[in-house]
């Protein structure tokens, strides 16, 4: 969030009286696992509570939304490649949103929406203030162009046509397993079942092959009857290239059929007319589209007059057609299949696009090289995109499905895996871009607040683990490149705001340590150490009184400059300096490591002695200014131990006293977790509506001491933030609670967010803060990290797993610098067996750290890769066991490392 971009409008918004109100009453009944819980420890013990707690931990089943429960209308799963635009898959399999044409709109539905409760009648909310939360867009209301699929079935003498949308089937189920959705269509009158798997190629660690501007639809017909079925699968798409400027520029749209080996489809291009704009190819939305089937028997129809009529299933004689942009032009690709009794047949379809003319803010701020889309370097048009997908279909599809299987094949609950991973899909929205120069660039949320904002994106743990090359590039090209100043300060919005934000500064130093850890060697650190050192020194320079606690007023993520010594900023900076210490040691800079070590020692002691009030950490006012300006002061602030939370993400150990840290988290649970945000909002005005009546969440600040002016003596518009539930902050707290052993609270808080985004209420794939698909929400991945007790250091060849529950029978995915796979541990009859399976890439290991489970008997430790025995040494410290390999291991796909203890 940033004050300078929308200060006046936000103040106006908050001064309207606070839109959190009493909330909307929902007709749909959805689970509310967190709702049973009144805030405040100790946890109640009764049968009902026990059963509901058990449900949070249970494996459960895949989250499946149903037509029969009215759960499909809001679903919008991003199915375009990362950094390639924003395209939604609806709950019934039709595409919507179509934000792939460089419109740079703010929010997925950039209109002010009404707030329809009695208290706030007549008020409206913008996208950046929660419009899509209060009035979630419905798929049927945001369809820019015609698109869909249908099947024609020949059942003996009977012919039946069914369109793959919710109007034509008794039941449709949507399995929410991002990055792949499985949609099943059933009708009790038909002896077939249709199953669609929809996705864009998604391969962790591989940015390029995960950034293809295309969506894949594998449509399978399953014959559940006793007779063969002849079927025709048809996919259609409207030629609406240059949808906004095409008619104005008097362009013509051309549809051309093509046949390339097994890829058969229609290429949608644009032609200039004699009386049109001859510079139309410079327009922001100029480009091409394509629809194709990977099926050698497919045929085409370049001009279907009515997509919901019989003509849809008729092959056309024409191979090319040209129409004025004002006219509707729809093409279809037909794929005949025969399906034997009890058999199935599938046809993959590809819809691709190529709209290269991306320009942010009319190109006024960013350099010329940062105009255009990166995918334009790889593909000349949409047809080339489709051709690439077809030529590499097996590998792209297999690896995408392999990741889906690897992620969800776990002992962790399905709902937990879904919620902690789902926000990575923000990278496949127009929140995130990659310019033609190769530079990654992001808004805070769709179209709102420019420039890879450091104090927002530092929370986002998902990108650095799933696509670490993106974050390494951002550190080098932006934070340590265009943004780094001589004094070590980092501009917190790149070219868009040439000043540092203290929390973002700390987060970027910590990010440098994570990016180093997620590298295969020392290259990243060696190239950047001198710059990282300057950035770390800048943090220490903000400590005016040299007590190890920064006290120089600088911008922070709550859009203000706070005075004094602020626990959450102090702790975050201590964690960053400790990361600087670790990097200094690895870089061979012993002198700077010693400086950092002393700063951390002094800061940790003083934070413990002076910023802890016996229950939680506080904001100590500036000795001169006092509480004149806005701040958190003696209140209970959601990020008060954020530094320790970050430290757990990168294996830094303790930066905050453990007893005080846990007390602070218990205080957040006691004071800030709210069972019903509707009731809370009745007496706490000013917040934006990110949780409504009947919904649970953790608010930003509370005033346990009942002070009359808890947030400062002068009213400030930023105070409205303190009464909000912003999911990125909540995920950060949940990840920390998980790391500290507060697994009940961590799961309940995560589940509260998950239930707020149930499909009966709004889009499960769109966690909202300042606009849609907000970057901070990727903090959710951090809760997965801490649930696994995962640590990793690629250059050292070090990996650690210490699961927080199901320790005797745990299975979960992991990603490393060059590969990913599955970790398993089991304990049976006093023997603990560890398995590390590599699914993709390679994993280089020198040592593995584990936690010995209860009941493990004493005995030897053996290790093997396949049938090959591996010599190891062991070092035990309490429950931790480190296994040191006498020589480095390099595990390949299909290889498994097995360690047996206590045999």
UniProtKB/TrEMBL annotation:
Single GO MF descriptor: hydrolase activity, hydrolyzing O-glycosyl compounds
Residue span, Glycosyl-hydrolase family 116 catalytic region domain: 503-780
Domain Glycosyl-hydrolase family 116 N-terminal: 76-395
GO biological process: carbohydrate metabolic process
PANTHER family per UniProt: BILE ACID BETA-GLUCOSIDASE-RELATED, NON-LYSOSOMAL GLUCOSYLCERAMIDASE
Record's protein name: Uncharacterized protein, contains GBA2_N and DUF608 domains
